[in-house]
Amino acid sequence: xxxxxxxxxxxxxxxxxxxxxxxxxxxxxxxxxxxxxxxxxxxxxxxxxxxxxxxxxxxxxxxxxxxxxxxxxxxxxxxxxxxxxxxxxxxxxxxxxxxxxxxxxxxxxxxxxxxxxxxxxxxxxxxxxxxxxxxxxxxxxxxxxxxxxxxxxxxxxxxxxxxxxxxxxxxxxxxxxxxxxxxxxxxxxxxxxxxxxxxxxxxxxxxxxxxxxxxx
Length: 216
Prior knowledge:
Keywords: Cell projection, Cilium, Flagellum. By secondary structure, this protein is mainly alpha-helical. The chain is built from ten helices and four strands; from the N terminus they run αααβααβααβααβα. It has helices at residues 19-33, 38-51, 76-86, 94-103, 108-115, 126-138, 141-152, 165-177, 184-198, 207-210; strands at 91-92, 124-125, 163-164, 204-205. The strands form two sheets. Strands 1-2 form a two-stranded antiparallel ribbon. It has a two-stranded antiparallel sheet with strand order 3-4.
């Protein structure tokens, strides 16, 4: 079909007044998030924006961590984004997790490795998956729980990184239960002592409350 012989001028092109601000926020978000695949991430960004969902955007630029494995994909900032997007559901559909994961340009192989650590055939129990993702970031139980507290806390950055005791106990018990070298009695003893310790702190657990103890 031949192209219509129509001339366009600037006056004929309607630019929505909100578009400049949308593009400005999009540019800032891309700079903060530093996606590996800008096109894929942009698709996820505008899909979330159109549907009124949490955007796949980091709160700040993350500097590379010397101790982190090369090409590990997942970072604390990206896991925090996933948590904001998916935590409202106790159980997340596998397809939805796969889409959010892909839109953050994370390696599919890493997602498969995490899913193989438990049985998620009936859907992905989000807080269990979150715990597994923290273990991928941490390596040890102590560092895994530190990441969990820093991601979940509502304290300001640089603060105590406190989380409710019940949340901490669930994540800790789950990860410890996957480690055959940690007896259940040791887990229960540690949590009982921690419970008593934080009872005077409105049952909130901060990083300093457990990082000096031997947990794993």
